[in-house]
Structures are given as structure tokens and as C-alpha cells.
Amino acid sequence: MVEFRQWFAKYQMFVLEYKVKPKPQQVQAIEEAIKTHQFVRNKVLRYWMDNRGQGKAELFRYNTDLRAGYEFVEELNSHACQTAVERVLRSITKFFDNCKKSKPGKKGYPKFQKHNRSVEYKTSGWKLDPQTKKHIDFIDKKNIGRLKLIGSRDLYYFQPEQIKRVRIVRRADGYYVQFVLKLDPKDTVKPFPVTQKCIGIYVGLKEFYADSNGHLEPIPQFYRKSERQLNRANRKKSKKYRKGQPQSKNYHKARMRYARKHLKVSRQREEYCKRVAYSVIQSNDLVAYEDLNVRGMIKNRKLAKSISDAGWSRFRQWLEYFGDKYGKATVAVPPHYTSQICSHCGVKVQKSLSTRTHVCQCGYREDRDVNAAINILQKGLSTVGHTGTYAWGETPSSLVGAILLGYGDSVNQESSSL
Ligand SMILES: [Zn+2]
Question: Labelling 268: which of 68, 231, 258, 332 has CA 20 to 30 A away?
Fold first, then answer.
């Protein structure tokens, strides 16, 4: 586990993604591989649950037993089986970490996987066409065969040994092949020029964020609009659902329509978070924000809508990503009393969620969220040297796969979602 962590923390994961159009028999082979991956993962997890105290070595050994015992497991490339074990190990470590840190709420006891959508290879079991690098052959006994990589990004610039993982991912609109590349982003980009500006950011209810300069970034229109569309598609789907019976063709059609819509919306939102984060990092040297436990907050119904919606955690990840990439500081400060304290005189001014303006005895008057943002900035400046955790290090690889970045990328390039 340790080396895994270090690997993720040390290098940025650049994921290049290509659409592929497998033929029907290839689809079957891919689905077989995905199913096998899930099978291994669940079996290994079951083994760990039944034999608590078993470590990494035992789990890998059990994987070897599985390969000897089941022909369809043996057909999947051995390193691809290992990645399934690694996923189990990661969820176990995460669970123990949460327990150790006595994280509030659920600790995330590892779960069996029901709807796996991807299979992950390491450096074997596949081969890129050495000439064009536009085709990939999967050469294990699952017989997926050759797939054409559709997409404009060129693998040609990378050394084959930079490709650390290859994944096949199923989404609502088809299959994708991802290449996980090990690159140090600082080698590929120049840091942004120094701006001598610092900013505090507060995620409120009314807007996407409020900053310490008094700027309120509105939640984009399409958030609400797409939400309505999603709800409509979801209702149509539920109407066609028949309890306790096999589902109709129309139901499955509606289900797929909903899934595709969902994919589109999440891509749109991701793109938005990325763009805003980029411009914040570009125009500041230091960005301070609250170290929010978003999961805990989503439980609070009132707050839930704006936070989950506005994709705050993705936004934060992008801030930290761009901050690291372009040599800017990002500071996560403890969120206590940021909206209550007067940023002018330091006195606590109690106010409810509905009080939109901060009014203090000292004569200071400001939008409540802007006041909070100023407090965050002040906290941030007083704790510099102790900068925010670099988010990607903690992201499981299945999530990292969702982050699509190009070589020396600009924000305008396409991005993707889960
Ligand atoms: Zn005051």
C-alpha cells in the first residue's frame, strides 16, 4: 500500500481518454473482462472479511489461488487481476484511516461491488500499435483484440514506459480506453507569473462562491436547467418501471436516456468547475478556502442542495490541482465560525442562515458570505507554510480516471466525468 500511496502522491496522474467502438463480439469480451475484475475484487474482499488480519501478501496469494481455481480468472491478464486486489487494499486502508482519524459518520467499511464498469490493466496484456499508436491490442486470453482509438490527443509524444495503466471503461454512451500516464506536470508547464494577490473563498448557499474581494460568482444557469431536465428524464424512467416484473423495452430506453443525460450534465459541470478554478489560480498567488467535510454537510438537508450541486469538492480538487501545477499556494483552513466572526473587528456576530448581511457594532457592514471569505483569507494567511493537502494523492484510482488532462493542457480541452 505504501508504495502505491507514494506513487499517487508523487506524480500527477494524466489520463488520456479515447472513445472506442468495439464490435459485438468484442463488447462481449470486454464485458467478460469487467465481470472478471469484479469477481476477483469481491472474492478477495470476502476472503479478507472471513480472515481478518490478513495482510497484503495473503490477499495477493489468494488472488493467485483464484487464478488457479477458475479458468475465466486465469484468462484475464495477471496484472489486471492484481489491480482488482489493489482496489480492495485501497478501500481497506481508507476504512482504517477513517477509523483512526475517527471521522464523523460512516467509516466506509469496504463493500462488495455490484455494478463494476471498468477493467484496469497495468503494463502487460495490451500493446499499442508501434507505428501509429492509434490502435491498441488486448492480448490476454479474454480475446478483446484490436480497438481503434478515436480522439484527437496524440499518444505519439509519450514514451511507452510512461503508460502505467490502461483501463477500459463503460459509460452510458459507449466504451472508452484510458491511458494513465506518469508525468511531472511541472516539467511540462511554466508556473503562472506572480500576481501578488491573495484570495479567500467561501462556498455559500446563494452563489457558487463568494470571495474576499467582494465578488459573488453566481451558480450558472445551466445547473438549474439541467437539473430540471434530469428530473424529467428520471420521472419518465420511473413511470415505466414495473415492480416485480421484467422491465419493458421502453423502460430500458428511458433508463439509457436518463444515463446519457446524466453523463452530459456531469461533463458540463466538471468543465465549469475546472474553468473557474483555473481562472482563480491564474489571478492569485494564494487561495484560501474552508476545509469542509462535504459529506457531513450534505446530510444537512438545507445546505445539501447548493453544495452537492455546485460541485464544491470537484472545484476544490481542481483548485489544488492547478495550484500545484502552476506553483500557487492553496490553503484549506478549519471552517469554524468563519461566517459569524466580524472580519473587521473580530467580534462574533451570531446570525442565522437566512441573514444575508453581516452587520457589526463596529460599523462594518458586508455581504455575509464576503465577510466569511475575508475571514477565510485571514486564517489562510496566518497558517501559510502549512498548505492544503494535495487532493489527488488521496483520490482512489477509479476517481483519478475521471480526471482527464492533456499534455500541457489548457482548460478548454475536453474533460470527462465518472
Ligand atoms: Zn465588527
Answer: 332
Contact 181, 194 (CB under 8 A): no
Residue after which a domain boundary falls, among 183, 205, 222: 183
Cell numbers placing 316: 476544490
Q: Give me the residues paired with residue 200 across strands.
A: 288
Q: Is residue 390 part of a domain?
A: no
* Per-residue pLDDT reduced to its tens digit, 169-200: 999 999 999 998 887 655 666 788 888 899 99
pLDDT tens digits, 30-50: 999 999 999 999 999 999 999
Q: Tell me, yes or no, whether 415 lies in a domain.
A: no
pTM of the model: 0.66
The runs of H, that is alpha helices, within 311-403 are: 312-325, 368-382, 397-400
Distance (angstroms) between ligand 1 centre and the Cα of 359 equals: 8
Q: What are phi and psi of 359, to 5 degrees?
A: -125, 125
pLDDT digits (tens, 9 = 90+) for 362-394: 999 999 999 999 999 999 888 764 444 333 333
- H or E stretch at 365: strand 365-367
372 CA from centroid of ligand 1 (Å):
12
Last residue of a domain, one of 155, 183, 211: 183
400 domain-assigned: no
Other residues' Cβ atoms within 10 Å of the Cβ of residue 167: 22
| Position 61 in a domain | yes
Task: Say yes or no: 356 and 244 in one domain.
Answer: yes
Same domain, 151 and 254: no
Question: What is the domain count for the chain?
Answer: 2
* Ligand 1 centroid distance, CA of 281 (Å): 30
Chain centroid to Cα 149, Å, comes to 23
Same-domain pairing of 117 and 226: no
Q: CA 390, CA 355: separation in Å to the nearest integer? A: 34
Query: 385 CA distance to ligand 1 centroid (A)?
Result: 28
| Helix (H/G/I), strand (E/B), else coil: 74 | helix
Taking the centre of ligand 1 as the mean of its atom positions, its distance from the CA of residue 384, in whole angstroms, is 25
